[in-house]
Amino acid sequence: MTTNVMIVGVGGQGSLLASKLLGHVVMTKGYDVKVSEVHGMSQRGGSVVTYVRFGDKVYSPVIDKGEADFIISFEVLEAARYLPYLKKNGKIIVNDQEIDPMPVITGAAEYPEELKDKMKAAGADVSAINALEMAENAGSAKAANIALMGCFSKYFKDISEEEWLTSIEACVPPKFLELNKKAFYLGRNS
Description:
The protein is of the alpha/beta class. The protein has helices at residues 15-28, 76-81, 102-105, 115-121, 131-138, 144-153, 161-171, 177-188; strands spanning 2-10, 32-35, 39-40, 47-55, 68-73, 86-95, 125-129. Strands 1, 2, 3, 4, 5, 6 and 7 form a 7-stranded mixed beta sheet that branches. The chain starts with a strand and ends with a helix. Helix 6 (144-153) packs across helix 8. The protein contains 8 helices and 7 strands. The longest helix has 14 residues, at 15-28. It has a single domain (2-188), classed as Pyruvate-ferredoxin oxidoreductase, PFOR, domain III (Pyruvate-ferredoxin Oxidoreductase, domain 3, 3-Layer(aba) Sandwich), CATH 3.40.920.
């Protein structure tokens, strides 16, 4: 059985680190892991998606529509954008943050309202957390990605908290380690 995880957001929010962390922790558990490259306008604030697939044997990093077990979203509109990829009974973990895309910034469109309720009405199991506030409480808004991963970690009972922390130590530069661990704890305990 293969687990399919999409990590979505806006360029600059840390999706690369989140996918690297997830890939590392599941690899240490002995899974075959495929991680896609970041797709999108990662350096310009555009929509970004990374796929992480793991299981006994995984042949491709690509996740098609209706196949994602989890969508981890750093921003509400991005969660809604990728909703068609979620499988029935899949789970969305979303940061409450709303970042205006370019059409909203220029006045050509309005940010859609009540997106979390609309996703739930469409049948999605949505957990929304304020990862930005958690990250700020940990010491830096840039750790929102790790707060989200902390929340996500609760869904994997076979991966201990210690194993997640060991992977954080392997993936995060030492000078940012303590604040990222704190962000992880805040997300895990949310």
